[in-house]
Design goal:
Length: about 200
C-alpha cells in the first residue's frame, strides 16, 4: 500500500501557475490518472485540506468528476443536493451555455461553497466548486454549445471565464479529475489552465 504522500506525488500531474490581476500567482494542481480508484480524490482532498489548514493558504478545490466524491467528502450530501437543485454546481455553468435561450442560473459567487471540510466543522480558507452527476449527460451535449450561439465550445475557455472574478482570492486551485479523461475533462488540465 502506498503512503498518502507517494500517492499524491504519483497522481499530481504538475504545478503550473496562472497570474491573477494583482500579479500574484495562483498555483493550479490537478489530480489526474486514467485508471480508476487509485487515490486521486483522496489525495486531492488531503492536499487541499493540508494547504488550507496547515500552510494557511487560500484554496479552491474544483470537483470535475460527476461521481462527486470530493464534493460529498467536503460538504454533506444534503448540502450538495440543495446546491445542485439551485444550480450551484459546475454542471450549471455548462447547462447555461447549452441552453442560451434560457436565463442563465450559474453564479460563481454562489456556486462556491465556503469553509468546507469535516475537519473542525470546516476550514476557513478552503472553498469548493461542487460537481454534479448531471455532468455525465452534459458532456455529450457540449459540442452543441458552439451551435447554440456565438460561444466557444471549449470547456476550458468556459471554465476559465467563470473563474476570472475569483481566481485572485486563491493561492492554490486543486482540480479533482474523473478517471476517464474524455470530452470535458481532457481539456481541463493544469498545463492548459496555467497558460491562460
Ligand atoms: N493511500 C491510500 N491508502 C489506502 N487506501 C487508500 C489510499 N488512498 C485512497 N485509498 C482508498 O482507495 C479508494 C479509492 O480512492 P479514491 O476515491 O481517492 O480514488 P480515485 O482515483 O479518486 O477514484 P476514481 O477514479 O473513481 O475517481 C477509496 O476507498 C480510498 O479510501
Ligand atoms: Mg475520484
Amino acid at each position: 500500500m502506498c503512503s498518502g504522500s507517494s500517492v499524491a506525488s504519483a497522481l499530481l500531474r504538475n504545478d503550473s501557475k496562472v497570474k491573477g490581476f494583482n500579479g500574484e500567482e495562483t498555483h493550479v494542481l490537478s489530480f489526474i490518472n486514467l485508471k480508476g480508484g487509485v487515490g486521486k480524490t483522496t489525495a486531492a482532498v488531503a492536499v487541499a485540506e493540508m494547504l488550507a489548514q496547515d500552510a494557511r493558504k487560500h484554496v479552491l478545490l474544483i470537483d470535475l468528476d460527476p461521481q462527486t466524491n470530493a464534493t460529498v467528502t467536503l460538504i454533506s450530501e444534503e448540502k450538495w443536493a440543495e446546491m445542485d437543485r439551485e444550480g450551484r454546481t459546475i454542471a450549471q455553468l455548462f447547462e447555461d451555455r447549452i441552453n442560451p435561450h434560457v436565463a442563465p442560473k450559474f453564479n460563481i459567487e454562489t456556486a462556491i461553497a465556503r469553509r468546507v471540510s469535516t475537519i473542525n466543522d470546516g476550514i476557513s480558507r478552503l472553498d469548493l466548486l461542487p460537481s454534479s452527476i448531471r455532468l455525465i449527460d452534459l458532456q455529450d451535449r457540449i459540442p452543441m454549445i458552439a451551435m447554440a450561439g456565438n460561444y466557444t465550445a471549449n470547456p476550458l475557455e468556459i471554465l476559465r471565464g467563470a473563474l476570472q472574478p475569483v481566481i485572485d482570492r486563491y493561492d492554490y486551485i486543486i482540480i479533482d479529475c474523473p478517471p476517464s479523461c474524455q470530452r470535458l475533462m481532457c481539456f481541463v488540465n493544469t498545463q492548459s489552465i496555467g497558460e491562460l
